[in-house]
């Protein structure tokens, strides 16, 4: 067992806070950045060592870390609710910053739709179904959550979808849901629902212009795959 050395006894160039101040945030490792958030470690581990324990249970993957809840984080010796909440809050703030950077008033492509929904849905551990309501010029009116469900599916009620569109006087909608499994391929149920909603929208003069499936590794666009002309 190696002897524990407190961060305060490290060389100045190795201390995370001092390193960030002197050399810039991009020079710090993930463990060092996480250690700054933790603030302090335990009697036997520094904050950076504790951060490494956290990253280990996330397989050193930030996307996996973002999906951990309070219970999972608190399973690590030295992590209590306060530290767990601090980590979750920091990750959420980072996600909101990302969304603000790519926010747009108009949806002109599947990439625009993914940039809108990705930061919102890619870290969810259960499925959510959303629609994006658009004006005739594809300017965003607002997003609207239709439902949330389990790990593998959620219910998207066509009546609720088109009621939201009619109430907002929307000319078109973009459908979106996430796959927590990471599988980008649409299911047969996804394909059937998309066909059904395209057909229903035509009767109401509301275009369903795309259906985006979001994962933490990217997205699938029904429009890009030429599937938005199909009817049931």
Summarize the structure.
The chain has 232 residues and is of the alpha+beta class. Helices cover 42% and strands 16% of the residues.
Describe this structure in words.
- The termini are far apart.
- It is elongated and about 70 Å long.
- The chain is of the alpha+beta class and about 230 residues long.
- The chain is built from 9 helices and 5 strands; from the N terminus they run αααααααββαβαββ.
- It has 2 domains: about 5-100; about 105-220, Cytidine Deaminase, domain 2.
- β1 (about 130-135) and β2 (about 140-150) form a beta hairpin.
SSE layout and pairing:
Elements: H1 16-23, H2 30-38, H3 47-57, H4 62-66, H5 70-74, H6 81-102, H7 110-121, E1 128-134, E2 140-148, H8 158-167, E3 172-178, H9 188-203, E4 207-215, E5 218-221
Parallel strand pairs: 3-4
Antiparallel strand pairs: 1-2, 1-3, 4-5
Helix pairs in contact: 2-3, 6-7
Helix count equals 9
| Largest sheet strand order | 2-1-3-4-5
Order of helices and strands: HHHHHHHEEHEHEE
Structural class: alpha+beta
The CATH topology of the largest domain: Cytidine Deaminase, domain 2
Strand content: 15-25%
Largest sheet: 5 strands, mixed
**Runs with pLDDT <50, length 5+?**
none
Q: Can you identify the CATH class of the largest domain?
A: Alpha Beta
The total tally of domains equals 2
Tell me what the CATH architecture of the largest domain is.
Answer: 3-Layer(aba) Sandwich
Overall radius of gyration: 22 Å
Q: What value does the average pLDDT take?
A: 89
Percent helix, as a range, is 40-55%
Shape: elongated
- In CATH, the homologous superfamily of the largest domain goes by the name Cytidine Deaminase, domain 2
In whole angstroms, the N-to-C terminal distance is: 66 Å
> What is the number of beta strands?
5
């Amino acid at each position: 067992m190696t002897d524990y050395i407190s961060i305060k006894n490290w060389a100045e160039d190795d201390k995370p806070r001092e390193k960030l101040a002197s050399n810039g945030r991009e020079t710090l490792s993930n463990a060092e950045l996480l250690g700054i958030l933790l603030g302090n470690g335990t009697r036997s581990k520094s904050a950076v060592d504790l951060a490494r324990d956290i990253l280990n249970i996330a397989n050193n993957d930030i996307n996996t870390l973002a999906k951990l809840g309070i219970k999972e984080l608190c399973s690590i010796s030295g992590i209590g609710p306060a530290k767990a909440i601090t980590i979750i809050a920091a990750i959420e703030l980072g996600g909101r910053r990302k969304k603000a950077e790519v926010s747009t008033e108009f949806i002109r492509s599947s990439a625009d739709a993914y940039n809108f929904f990705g930061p919102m849905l890619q870290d969810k551990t259960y499925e959510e179904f959303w629609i994006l309501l658009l004006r005739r010029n594809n300017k965003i009116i607002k997003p609207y959550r239709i439902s949330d469900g389990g790990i593998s599916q959620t219910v998207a009620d066509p009546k609720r979808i088109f009621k939201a569109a009619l109430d907002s006087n929307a000319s078109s909608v973009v459908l979106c849901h996430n796959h927590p499994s990471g599988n980008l391929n649409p299911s047969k149920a996804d394909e059937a629902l998309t066909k059904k909603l395209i057909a229903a929208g035509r009767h109401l003069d509301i275009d369903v212009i795309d259906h985006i499936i979001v994962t933490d590794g990217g997205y699938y666009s029904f429009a890009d795959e030429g599937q938005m002309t199909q009817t049931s």
